[in-house]
Amino acid sequence: MTFGQDSLYILRGTWNQLPEAPEVLRLNASADWSEQNHVFEREADIASNLVIVNEDTTSHVWALLMGEIEGITIEPGDTAVVDLPALPMGTYRLGLIDGEGSGLGAQSMLQVGLQSGGDPALFHWNLCDWEAQQMTSWSSGSEPDPNAAYVPNYFSINEQTYPTTLEDPNALISVALGDTCWIAVANHGQMDHVLHFHGFHVEVLTSNLQPTRIGWSKDTVPIKKGEGMTLQLVANQAGIYPVHDHNLIAVTNAGFYPGGMLTQIIVDP
Amino acid sequence: MSTVKHIFHILVLSSAAWLAPSLYAQQQPPQLFSGMEGYTFLPGGTPVPIWGYGWVADGFITLPAPLLTYTQGESVQLNFTNPSPESHTIHLHGLDVDQANDGVPGTSFSVTTGDDATYSFDADYPGTFLYHCHVTTTLHLTMGMYGMVLVTRPDFTLYEGGPTYAEDVPLLFSDLEVATNLDPVGSYPFHDIRPDVFMINGESGSQLEAPGRIVHFEPGQPLALRLGSMAYSRVVCQFPPELNATCYMSDGRPLPTLFEPNALEIYPGERFTVLIDPEPGWDGSLPCEFWSMVDETLESTENIHIRDAALTIEEPQFIGVKGYPNPTREHITWDDARQIEVWNAYGKPVADLRFEQGVLDVSGWPIGTYVARIDGRRSVRFVVIE
Ligand SMILES: [Cu+2]
Ligand SMILES: [Cu+2]
Question: pTM for this structure?
């Protein structure tokens, strides 16, 4: 295992997934732009570090989003090496905590102790809600009006909105009948989301904000704002089954159904 | 426990006149139909249009839809017919049915206008479930196309090896935005739906204080509160300690560890089964808060009234409150009724009523379902036939 060696690049680019093609910020694994935030992995219970390169034109504040670790300010063009503590197995959040950095979506997931040679198969869902107007404000250098009502009009899984969620091999769960898989879920949005699984109950393996729900078997799973959660799915029937936010305003793109936070589980017989 | 009323008998109008001639000829098996011309009434009496489901034998749709009850282990054949002008489905939320019966257009089947369908599934797990339409779900759900499903055990245990209880109390939370229901065609964009009516079993505010809505208990006879949400809001039930509440199940599965709920959060689509065994003589309410999912503001608090059955003095009953004969061709009578208001199937008040000494003259009225309010406080449904 070579965990702890990778770097994180703060990049600015265009999110062509949305018709507005807003300018956004992302955490990428290299200096090459990707519309999707990179998901980072670490072994359980081992401290490590992470190299962060700010390729953006403004300064940003980076943090492991656990409420304990102070943000680290990184100036444009600077590189910082940050320590990651030893963490128990689970799904965590990391990213930029300055207004522009979080408002433009530079937030991702840290998977700790979940990769174990592909068995069980691991999928991930970075959930987020977006208001096009807020993104336009941030990218034009002005803070959105804090008194304006938040009216999110896009909802994403791994920075994809349905139907393109089905083209992302992590957002689409494709498994064989009888397989067990894990799904790492993080909510980076400004509101809670609640995922409903058609066809299956899932078991909550880890949760940072709802630890009392660990071990519960659920078909409808709230993922609170700021939450990292790990779910286990046993694919005990074949077929194609939707998974979607059951706050149904979130299964839309710019107000049109179906869209947004909607993907599928495909179980091959 | 005969005093416990299932509080699902919410009056809703439907223009199901097409069904009226065969209303009482309809035989088993029961069949659900979908309709797009119903009404629910706000506490002030204002009608709000709804879409929904009802029993074919009843001929009207309700908000919420009829409670479906099955016994654990049953192989269910749920018959459905859609006479309405748009396609609908039934998604059996939480019952983990197979793809063919999942009620999702595209991966399952749609039931188009004039079509019949049967949904087949096994009720393997006891618990609290939901059903709703999955066509343009954001809209069809907020219009009212949802109901609760209970899978129970004949021995009144919650699950194998679980606690026994005396009675099921289905409590379905939901909400709607009046402007959307008044103009569903003009309701885009869907992401700005912000509910402004917050309901428990389709009712809110003073409606929940009506005698028939109060949940009565007898000390030592636990009630199973079947809490489920089809709301767009996050519901938080604030359990008073006197209810002695214990949460046993969520989403149709026993919990690995029981807990005593204080503020029980119920997100859209979630269900909880909570047993209560309140203190003897308790008469109070279980406040249920509706919080916006978007900006975390408290939108409304609706109260479930719970009372020791020993405290309830018999209400003076209207004799023949249902009215007779019903269905009727020419007259319908409510003994001792002094004053009456009537709405037709489209929620429009019927003017110039011929009403004297409890007798309403309906000769010449269009066939169909009507709702009458007797002496300003009791609503009843009646049907005019050919
Ligand atoms: Cu429908
Ligand atoms: Cu559902």
Answer: 0.86
